[in-house]
Amino acid sequence: MALSELLLEEGWRVVGISRRSSTLQATDYEHHVADVRSGEFPAVLEQVVERHAVDVCVYCAGTGEFLDKGALQKQRTVFDVNLLGAVSTTQIVLPAMVRAGGGQFIGLSSQADGLASPDAPSYSASKAALSSYLEGLAPSFRRDGVFISNLRFGFVDTKMAKAAARPFMVSARVAAEQVRRCMHRRPVRMTYPKRLLPVLWLVALSTAVRRWAS
Ligand SMILES: NC(=O)c1ccc[n+]([C@@H]2O[C@H](COP(=O)([O-])OP(=O)(O)OC[C@H]3O[C@@H](n4cnc5c(N)ncnc54)[C@H](OP(=O)(O)O)[C@@H]3O)[C@@H](O)[C@H]2O)c1
Fold it and tell me: Which of 62, 95, 118, 213 lies in the 20 to 30 Å Cα band around 33?
């Protein structure tokens, strides 16, 4: 939402897809209702790609679930949205960009992609796979004029940020400005904010020490 607002302010034409209808009202905004897990999502996206020359596609859809050992299907949902929805999106958008002679795909991943989290294992695992997939695709598609970026956020002040402690959390607007920066710089990997990295290294180290000691 924050990214759509920022792009509309700059004069872009924006198409959004999500499960709910949007409150965004703008002449240059078009919204489609679809769940990335549903069988109808590929057809909705294909129609968008046929009707518009897509310069930039940002895969934002994401979810997270704390571990409930009695309901492991919720962990599966996280993979379906965070990873497989992104894979389906690349399957439709990247060939269209290749045919058009260029484009840019940005996936919103997370700095949690380097953690093995006992609290929300599917979140960090799905983001690890997403980061790896995007960074693996990037060099192959670069030859076709398509730039693929893995944008790894820390904490952003949205309903997704559920952790008890959220160091260095930024606003959705600041995060949207970083997506804009990523659109401009087109790196394979971008991490924001970098000052969160030492905190996550300490978390990863303490997990490794606990595993070693047990
Ligand atoms: N917030 C953070 O701290 C944080 C940190 C690192 C990375 N990220 C990543 O940044 C991305 C954006 O998250 P956010 O913080 O902006 O969360 P958000 O406010 O919950 O936004 C998630 C977006 O995804 C859409 N969405 C969710 N599930 C969907 C589904 N099954 N099908 C289609 N659309 C779906 C939601 O719209 P509907 O509800 O209408 O479907 C919403 O537009 C996510 O991938 C998240 O993992 C967030």
Answer: 95
Structure confidence by residue, pLDDT tens digits, 6-59 = 999 999 999 999 999 999 999 999 999 999 999 999 999 999 999 999 999 999
Residue 71 burial by Cβ neighbours in a 10 Å radius (0-12, 13-18, 19+)? exposed
What one-character-per-residue DSSP string does 160-205 give? T---S--TT-B-HHHHHHHHHHHHHH--SEEEE-GGGHHHHHHHHH
Pocket perturbation via mutation, ligand 1, pick of 5, 18, 29 by most ligand atoms within 8 A of CB: 18
Pocket of ligand 1, beta carbon within 6 A: 18-20, 35-37, 60-63, 81, 108, 110, 153, 155-156, 158-161
* Chain-centre distance for alpha carbon 81: 10
Phi–psi pair at 10, nearest 5 degrees = -85, 0
Nearest CA residue ID for atom 23, ligand 1? 61
Report which protein residue has its CA nearest ligand 1's atom 45.
Answer: 62
Query: Which domains does the chain show, CATH number per domain?
Result: 2-213 (3.40.50.720)
**Which atom of ligand 1 sits closest to the CA of residue 64?**
47
What is residue 15's DSSP assignment? E
